[in-house]
Amino acid sequence: MKKILLSLAAMTAMTAMADTPLWMRFASISPDGNKIAFCYKGDIYVVPSSGGQAVQLTSQSSYESQPVWSPDGAMLAFASNRKGNDDIYVMPSTGGQPKQITRNSAAETPWTFSPDGKYIYFSAAIQDPASSMLFPSGRLTEVYKVPVEGGRATRELGTPAEYICWNKTGDYFVYQDRKGGEDEYRKHHTSSITRDIWCYDAKTGHHTNLTDIGR
Predict the structure, then answer these.
(1) What is the SS3 assignment for 200?
(2) Which domains does the chain have, with CATH numbers?
(3) What is the pTM of this model?
(4) How many CB atoms lie within 10 A of CB 189?
């Protein structure tokens, strides 16, 4: 009897898990705050921020992730490994045919659009500046921008910067640094490689540490 009860309990738990989506990742809220884009099982979805039915925008066997909104909310940029490594694609936020924007052999992660919506800023380990003192590593990426319609990417920063967020006028952006191999899922970690929040002045090129956690 005990084994039967345990089996029924396990089946009930499995059924509940099947009905409840788990491990939804990379949530990104739209500029007007009305929608949220996210990744679930390697595809991009959009759902109203008030709750409701999520709409699936991609259906490839590849892995799509890291969706970010254009300033007007009309477009989404995201990473996809459908051609082997993570490249950046753009598509209408209501769904449609994705367009490939980058084609470098390095893995690229989009973080944001420029305030005017003309460029996408992303991280990739492509080429360190000759003057860089960082040890060459795929973990220590650089920041690049690429036109939304595609074309040549240009390096903007030689130091790692993640989760970039511009102010509306394009004078500065805030970002999270990466100093080394910190496990991003480890809670309450404090050491010399703990990540900090910085502000980058686009006019002067000056970086200001806003948190100073790792010291």
Answers:
(1) strand
(2) 23-209 (2.120.10.30)
(3) 0.85
(4) 14
